[in-house]
Amino acid sequence: MRYQITAYRRDEGVTTLLVDAPSSDEATANTAAQGYEVVSLRELGGWKLAARREPAFDLLLFSQELRSLLEAGLSLIESLNALSRKEEASSAKRRQIEGLIRQLRQGQSFSAALRQFPSVFPPLYLALVAASEQTGDLGGALGRFIDYRIRMDAVKKRLAAASIYPALLLGVGGFVILFLMTYVVPRFSKVYEDLGGQLPLMSRLLLQWGGLIEGYGWQMLVALAVAIAAGVAVFRQRRWGWGTLLRGLLRLPLLAPVRERFRAYALARFYRTMGLLLQGGIPVVTAMGMSRELLDEEMASSLDVALEGVRSGMALSEAMERGRLAPAVASDLLRVGEKAGDMGEKMMRIADFHDDETARWAEWFSKLFEPLLMLTIGLFIAFIVVLLYMPIFELAGSVQ
Question: Apex CA 12: angle with CA 9 and CA 17, to 5°?
Answer without folding.
Answer: 75
